[in-house]
Amino acid sequence: MALRMHNSLAVHAGEWLKSEIVAPSGISLTALAAHLGVSRQALSTVLNGHAGLSADMAIRFEKAFGLKADTLLRMQTDHDLAQARQHEAMIRVTPLASAA
Length: 100
Fold this sequence. Notes:
Elements: H1 13-25, H2 29-36, H3 40-47, H4 55-65, H5 69-85
């Protein structure tokens, strides 16, 4: 039996970055976007949890703040899976019969 993480433990990587890294740093969203080489809108969308953290953006945060991109992407994947699990019952798929 596989262990499942409780949905409440899965945090959106962008929202975590906003509260734990960006806000405490005191840098403005506009300045950070310029430093990362992305648009202010793209950064805002991720930090506010309206878009998932991409591998590209994770690497940008790794380079700017020293965070591991792998860790940020695992955090995002855990969040995405927890969100999907909330609607798991609506996914109507049966086991595929083996072609033996």
